[in-house]
Sequence to fold (227 residues):
Amino acid sequence: GAVVSQHPSWVICKSGTSVKIECRSLDFQATTMFWYRQFPKQSLMLMATSNEGSKATYEQGVEKDKFLINHASLTLSTLTVTSAHPEDSSFYICSAISGARYGYTFGSGTRLTVV
Amino acid sequence: QQQVKQSPQSLIVQKGGISIINCAYENTAFDYFPWYQQFPGKGPALLIAIRPDVSEKKEGRFTISFNKSAKQFSLHIMDSQPGDSATYFCAALGGATNKLIFGTGTLLAVQP
Fold:
């Protein structure tokens, strides 16, 4: 089956630094990747949608300059949290589809803690 | 109109019992309704999904019941086991967008 690998699974960083999270589709080409943010005991909140080779589309209220998304190839998308602050601490999850719009596969998530 | 309402927020079921989680939607353009299971610290995993052209889909102990006229769908977990303890999310997809719309989640605890 389709597998999406997300790395790292957890990261602790100091306030003001930047953190990069990678999302890779291991056995399929991901035409579209999605990035979500999840707070404890809450649902997944879509942050942005990225298509290979084009700029990401951000959801309303998501700061595009703070959450930089790059989808440079059909198997890799990255989310960079720039100048991270404690309020950015959250669980970040990516997902990918291979063209068939119903074929969503989720990564295992990244726990970001900003101290 | 893009919301998917999910209930209950939490559920406690005895081992061997039936767990039932309900969802409702407004957008009639939705044409795909998946359920996801999420364990703590992990991403969601697809459990079972249904299209609106059928009223029920069963996979093992998991069944989706779909009521198109009421715009409601539900997940039934038969013979619930402690290993089923997780958070369950319903979702919907359709129309002009390929964005999954998630419900608010149900925390299920199956007591041994």
Summary: Residues 3 and 69 of chain B are 17 Å apart (CA to CA). The two ends of chain B are 39 Å apart (CA to CA). Chain B is about 0% helix and 55% strand. The interface with chain A takes residues 32, 34, 36, 41-46, 49, 89, 93, 98-100, 102-105, 107 of chain B (CB under 8 Å).
